[in-house]
Amino acid sequence: MIVGMQQHMYGRKSETALDGPDFVAFSRSFGGDGMRVEHPDQMAEALERGFASDTIFVIDAICDYNHPPANLVAAMKEVGE
């Protein structure tokens, strides 16, 4: 989302890609738990598990940054006017 706004406003992007970390495993290494969510249909289960957990619970939500939410696009258009 931020990358799209940077492209729109400044014509370039500035980012650090975190393509490899397994955030769920990282949480478990500290005694927590977590769930990787790759599709919106999985989010309800992840939230239920997280709220029911008695420890730190990480939800690793995978997003396609090439498809920003429609409301962000509208907000970017307002800023550009």
What do you see in this structure?
- The protein has a two-stranded parallel ribbon with strand order 1-2.
- The longest helix is centred in the C-terminal third of the chain and has 11 residues, at 70-80.
- It has four helices and two strands.
- Helix 1 (2-10) packs parallel to helix 4 (70-80).
- It has 81 residues and is α+β, with helices and mostly antiparallel strands.
- The protein has one domain.
- Helices cover 46% and strands 12% of the residues.
- It is elongated and about 45 Å long.
- The mean pLDDT is 83.
- Helix 3 (43-52) links the parallel strand 1 (33-37) and strand 2.
User: How would the global form be characterised?
Assistant: elongated
Radius of gyration using CA atoms only: 16 Å
Element-by-element helix/strand order? HHEHEH
The main pleated sheet reads as:
2 strands, parallel
Q: What structural class should be given to the helix and strand makeup?
A: alpha+beta
The number of helices is: 4
What is the subunit organization of this protein?
A: single chain
The overall number of domains is 1
Helix content: 40-55%
Total beta-strand segments:
2
Enumerate the strands of the largest sheet in spatial order, edge to edge or round the barrel.
1-2
How far is the first residue's CA from the last residue's CA? 19 Å
Low-pLDDT stretches: none
The overall pLDDT, averaged over residues, is 83
Question: What amount of the residues lies in strands?
Answer: 5-15%
